[in-house]
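Thread: quick sanity check before group meeting

JM: Hey all, I'm pulling together slides for Thursday and realized we never actually wrote out the predicted structure for the chain we discussed last week. Dropping the sequence here so it's in one place. If anyone has concerns about the input, flag it before I start.
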Amino acid sequence: MKDHIVTSFGEELKDIATRIVEMGGLAETLVKESVTALLKADSALARKTIEADRRLDEMQSKLEEMCISIIARRQPMASDLREIIAAMRISNDLERVGDMAKNVAKRALAIEGEFNSKTLAVGVEHMADLSLEQLKAVLDAYTSGDLEVVSSVRNRDEEIDALYNSLFRQLLTYMMEDPRSITMCAHLLFCAKNIERIGDHATNIAENIYYMVSGSHLPIDRPKSDDLELSAKA
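JM (edit): ok, ran it. Output follows.
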């Protein structure tokens, strides 16, 4: 009977891990499609992204319920408990990544084709590519348990911050030079901030994976460039 219980518990932990991977794949897709919708003024794709975010919300809710149930029934300890708690935290970050992608898609609809600057497009696309690279790396690390990758992801977060600050300055310059661009640039500022936040959530995931695997925390201080932080919420 004990072997059956242990085997069953192991299967539940595998199910949790599988659901995290599925959520991660969907979150990546939402980010890619929201940025594509913005750059290509694809309103249909933007609406599809907004709608698809509901599925990610549902997946996060179900996973959280499953984790709470397992903790109540199994009373896990040590590494098993860390794995479950980390999964809950990671799922929350992935759900937030979906929200960030949805926000970008909403801004894409609001701009409605006014985004015609190749220079700004390159900046937004570069930020998005790096954020997606970070997200993919950390999701791979969740499966492999590679702590070197986890540390690298967290340390590279400042690169995304630097790109955001650079784009922030560019957008301010555009607005000062041409008041007609203010509305479009304001929307792009919110898009850029949401993309920067995706990098932050990838960093949160990295920190939770490190704790899950090692049982200890990464140092609190990490590289961060906040000299031009935009505090307004999208």
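AS: nice. Residues 123 and 167 are 6 Å apart (CA to CA). The chain has one domain: 2-214.
JM: adding both to the slides.
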